[in-house]
C-alpha cells in the first residue's frame, strides 16, 4: 500500500485544525474565559491594539451567554458593579469622568449618552430608547470553552448553532426568530476545514478525501449523479479532472522534450521557401525515407543498441559453437542459429515509438528508437506508468484475528462448557429424582424443579449457540461478498 500512496499526502490530525486561533482576542482571567467577537478584529477599525489592555477584564456572563446583551443591559450591569464597589469601599474624594480630555465636560450628563447611568447610582438605571434594547451580536463571545494544559487552546461555538432572536427588530414567526450569531466567514471556514480533515482521516486508507466520490461503475452512477449536484461533489470532480489533465500535460510535455532532444532531420515535405524565387522553384520531391524523422537518436541510444547487439552476437556465436560440437558427435540442432538463418547479420527485437501531430492524417512520423530501454527517456516512461494520485489502493482483506472475533470465540467455548455441564447435571438430576421418588414429597418436588431448571438452562444454551453459529455464518458470507465487491471495484475503478 505504501507504493500505491507515494503521491498522496494524508492528514492524521482530525481533532486539531490547521487554522490557528486568532491573536486578537482577550485572554482569560481567573474569573472568566477568553473573549473574542467580530468587533475585536483590528482591521475592522473598531478597536486598536492599545484597547486590549483596557478590556483585559471585560468578559463576564453578559458577553458569553447564549443571549446577546443590549446596551441597556450593559449599562445596568455597569451601574450594579459601581454600586457594589461603592458599598465595599470608602471614598472621600471625587474626580471628573472626562478628566484628561481636551473638551470641557458638561455639567450635566445628557440622556442616552455613554455615562448617563452614572448620574444617579441610587436609582436603578432604565431607558426606553429603542437602540438601548437592540441585541449587540457584534460583541457576543464566540469562544465556548478553554482547554488548559501545556498547549492551552480555545474552542469556538459551532457557526451553525442557532439561538432565539429578540429585540425590536426581531421577526414575528418562530422560524424567522432563529439567528446564527456565530456564522462568520472565518468560523465557517474553520468549521468546514475540521469536517474535511475528519473525512480525510477516515478515508485515508483509500486515498483520502478524493476517494469519497462514487465511481463511474454502473452500480454507483445514481449516487455519482447526486454527488455532482452538491458543492463538495462538484469541487472534487473538478479537482479530479484538473489533476488528470495536469498529469496528461506533464506526460505530453515530457514526450515533446524527448522528441526535441538532440538533432532531427527535418523532412523535405515540411520545407518551404519564402519569397518569389522560392515559389518559382516549385516543390521539391520528398522521398519516402524523408517522411520519417529520427528523433532523440544520440550517442546514448546508439551505444545502448550496439551493446545489446554485441550480447546477441555473443549468444549467436555460442549457439554456433555448440551446433558445431553437436555435429562432430553425430547430433544436429533442430533450431537454426541466428547466424545460420541471417548470414552475417545480427538483429534484436527493439520496441520503437512513432509520434504524429494531431489533425494530420498522413503527416510526418517522428520515430523514437528503442523507446522502452532508451537511456534518455527513462523518466518519461516512469511518469507514464506511475499515476499522479492514487484513489483506491489494491483491495486487501486481513485475516480474521480481531479482538471482537476472539471474544466471540471465548463466549462460544464458555457456552459449550456450560452445555456439557448442564447435560451432566440434567442426567444426575433425573437419577436423583427417580431414586428419591419413594421419599418425602417435598424432596422429590424440589428435585423435579431442579431438573426443570437445568432443562431450561440447557435449551437456552443450545439456542444461544445456534444463534451464534448462524450469526457467524452470516457474517462470513457478508464478508465474502464485500471482499469480492472490493476486488471487482479495484479492477474497474479508474484513477481520478
Automatic annotation (TrEMBL):
Region (Disordered) location: 312-337, 426-451, 474-496
Q: Where is the composition biased (Basic and acidic residues)?
A: 312-332, 474-489
**What is the protein name stated in its UniProt record?**
Uncharacterized protein
Organism, by scientific name, is Stachybotrys chartarum (strain CBS 109288 / IBT 7711) (Toxic black mold)
Starting at the broadest rank, the lineage of the source organism is: Eukaryota, Fungi, Dikarya, Ascomycota, Pezizomycotina
